[in-house]
């Protein structure tokens, strides 16, 4: 309005020009009054966050301001590994402060720093908008997801499967000597130890049990293909979650657990160790496992793994491939490992790729996409068939099912005493 009055007075000319500045003077006075009435800088920011957040999960952040204007809105400078609401509001509390609860999703492992909070509110007369920046300086640590371990679900499953039902119905069917006992009618004649029976001049039988202390090694491919996002998380994070759950199951099952990582070359190897100590080391190591963009050298990495594991072991390999051509060297080297060790090959299936196959195309571009998706799935199937013929156990599942499928495969191998 002030601008319109100024234009009119300039065009009109004469004495009217003298009043052209009046609207601007009034506007300046209103702005000064509005600023004096509204300038109330928020103070004493309190930021509360969990010490650790599991990757892929959502945590609640609590923010509080001791002094804050009404209708206050805010934005956080989210780092790369965290995500949340683009904008949120502060609500007045009974004690005169203002509080906000923000949902924060952990999308990358690591220690992420939240540095600044941007605030925004309008003045009393709606002439001004204040946008100050407050320092936060908080750190949020995103760690591998061990929710299934903490819940006790894995412990219960393993103990009931290996030490409950199995041992009650499979006494004498193991491969490790436990004790000698007098032979009684109804026992299997094959269990008689004839040499010791001759010395004692009475029949004695050997009682066996399932062998313990097998070597289980978790091998993680950390190449660029494992950075592909599926279900909002990179494949490597889904693999780490499944690896930790299986390592805990193996520790509960009495086996020794080791780990190995590689990309363009071998990176980290830890010899199998017993119990929860090995799990704690594995969890600490996976928390520091970085995201890389290097191509995987399967020949070098799997040859090194074979050299470092002279004893027959259960190797759980988490990796990925694009097509049959890129998987040739992978299949060849896994075939070499399968001659000495027992292998589980873990691949994470892409649900979006399967949706493309199930969706009817609406145009030529859709038909081309459908053909390409079908070809990709068929090539993956061919690779899995080759690995199966080598005696490799295949776990090809969607992200939300890979952990359960892998633990089931491990328990089946234990029950059948294949190691």
Secondary structure: elements and pairs:
Elements: H1 2-12, H2 22-38, E1 43-48, E2 52-54, E3 58-67, E4 73-76, E5 82-84, E6 88-89, E7 91-92, E8 98-106, E9 110-122, E10 129-130, E11 133-143, H3 147-151, H4 153-169, E12 176-182, H5 194-200, E13 204-209, E14 215-221, E15 229-230, E16 233-234, H6 235-252, E17 256-262, E18 266-274, H7 275-287, H8 298-308, E19 314-318, H9 328-338, E20 342-348, H10 351-358, H11 364-389, E21 393-397, H12 402-416
Parallel strand pairs: 2-11, 14-17, 14-19, 19-20, 20-21
Antiparallel strand pairs: 1-3, 3-8, 4-6, 4-9, 5-8, 7-8, 9-10, 9-11, 12-13, 15-16, 17-18
Helix pairs in contact: 1-2, 4-6, 4-12, 6-7, 6-12, 8-9, 10-11
């Amino acid at each position: 309005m002030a601008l319109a009055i100024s234009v009119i007075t300039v065009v009109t000319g004469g004495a009217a020009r003298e009043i052209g500045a009046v609207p601007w003077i009034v506007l300046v006075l209103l702005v000064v009054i509005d600023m004096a009435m509204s300038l109330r800088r928020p103070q004493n920011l309190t930021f509360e966050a969990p010490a650790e957040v599991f990757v892929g999960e959502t945590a609640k952040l609590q923010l509080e301001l001791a002094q804050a204007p009404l209708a206050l809105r805010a934005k956080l400078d989210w780092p790369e590994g965290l995500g949340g609401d683009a904008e949120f509001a502060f609500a007045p509390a009974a004690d005169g402060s203002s509080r906000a609860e923000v949902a924060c999703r952990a999308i990358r492992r690591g220690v992420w720093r939240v540095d600044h909070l941007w605030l925004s509110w309008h003045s009393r007369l709606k002439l001004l908008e204040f946008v100050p920046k407050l320092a936060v300086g908080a750190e949020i640590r995103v760690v591998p997801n061990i929710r299934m371990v903490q819940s006790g679900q894995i412990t219960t499953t393993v103990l009931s499967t290996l030490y409950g039902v199995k041992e009650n119905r499979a006494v004498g069917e193991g491969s490790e000597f436990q004790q000698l006992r007098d032979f009684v009618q109804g026992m299997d004649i094959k269990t008689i130890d004839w040499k010791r029976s001759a010395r004692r001049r009475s029949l004695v039988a050997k009682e066996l049990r399932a062998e313990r202390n097998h070597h289980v090694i978790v091998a993680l491919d950390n190449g660029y293909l494992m950075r592909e996002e599926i279900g909002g998380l990179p494949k490597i994070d889904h693999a780490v979650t499944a690896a930790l759950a299986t390592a805990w199951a193996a520790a509960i099952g009495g086996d020794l657990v080791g780990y190995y990582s590689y990309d363009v070359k071998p990176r980290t190897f830890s010899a199998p160790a017993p119990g929860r100590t090995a799990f704690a080391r594995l969890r600490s190591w996976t928390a520091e496992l970085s995201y890389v963009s290097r191509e995987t050298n399967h020949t070098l990495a799997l040859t090194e793994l074979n050299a470092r594991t002279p004893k027959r072991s259960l190797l759980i390999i988490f990796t990925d491939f694009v097509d049959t051509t890129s998987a040739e060297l992978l299949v060849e080297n896994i075939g070499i490992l399968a001659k000495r060790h027992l292998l589980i090959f873990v691949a994470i299936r892409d649900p979006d790729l399967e949706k493309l196959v199930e969706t009817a195309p609406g145009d030529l571009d859709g038909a081309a996409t459908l053909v390409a998706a079908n070809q990709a799935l068929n090539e993956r199937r061919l690779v899995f068939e080759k690995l199966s013929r080598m005696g490799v156990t295949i776990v090809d599942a969607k992200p939300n099912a890979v952990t359960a499928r892998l633990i089931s495969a491990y328990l089946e191998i234990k029950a059948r005493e294949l190691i």
